[in-house]
Amino acid sequence: MARQIRFDTTGGPEVLRLHETPVRDPGAGEVVIRVDAIGVNRADAMFREGRYFYPPALPSGLGYEAAGVVEAVGPDVAGAAVGDSVAVLPAFKLTEHGTYGDHVVVPATSLVPRTADPVTAAATWMAYVTAYGALVEGDPVAKGDHVLLTAASGGVGLAAIQVANSIGAVPIATTRTPEKRQRLLDAGAAHVVVTSEEDLVARVREITDGQGVSTAMDPVGGPGLAEVVGTVAPGGRLLAYGLLDPRNDLSKGLPTVPGIELGLYTLFPVTYDPERRRRAVEFVEAGLDAGTFTPVVDRTFDLGEFAEAHRYLESGAQFGKIVLTVGL
């Protein structure tokens, strides 16, 4: 029997339930993972609430990231064997697979070899592949370019600071509270704008000598998106991902601003494509091996504390990733 976290209706953390269910056999291209740690992401909470960019098929599991050991292999699986220590990266839909449990079935194509401890491995792949896809893959940020990272104290923001530094860009981080200013500077941000105390557009224009940033990554959206647009240089781009503000309305799309590229961004064009996924994994593994990339874990919770972990996630108090642990 496996312990798995599921929900029967959308809503807050209280809708999550721990179920005991038989572990199903892996199908073609699938493996069973005995899970040691699970990365908790904003996407999980939005999916649970029914605000994700596709709806759950109820009853539903959830979760994109995990680290553990392969316990069973289905037909037509190459490159994975029973006993392998692995991490799971987001390369599937939550309506088809999920990682919240002590035993889960995932596609073999979502596996990467695990060399770090389980907690670190579970905190790596969503954040760093998201940052890689935005800043390196396709239309790479140039050395010396300024990059704006709003709400930068989350897992993706901190990973993007490290990725930007690794390619010679200049990361500008934002935070609502002055308490996180020094921590973001210590994490590698070249500049930090405290939005509760400073005018974002004016401060970014000052930092960039009036030019603006070449790329902005914003996970919030909502009314504040217009202010972020004002920080982008002509010919630059704003990548909206996450869309955490509940006032976002995807049916209306993003505003059109002459001379600036605005787009909705996800990591899935990278993780679903075998060649792009290979490049992303190589890039992230090289950074981890060199010590250039160091995942930041704010706090761990036991698997049974799943609701508390989601409440903490939604509080916005964290600095880095939240991880659920299983028997660690």
Automatic annotation (TrEMBL):
Record flagged with keyword Heme:
no
**Would the keyword Secreted be found if you checked this record's keyword annotation?**
no
What are the UniProt keywords, alphabetically?
NADP, Oxidoreductase
List GO molecular-function terms, semicolon-separated: NADPH binding; oxidoreductase activity, acting on NAD(P)H
Domain Enoyl reductase (ER) span(s) in chain numbering: 11-324
Its recorded name reads: NADPH:quinone reductase-like Zn-dependent oxidoreductase
Query: What organism is listed for this UniProt entry?
Result: Umezawaea tangerina
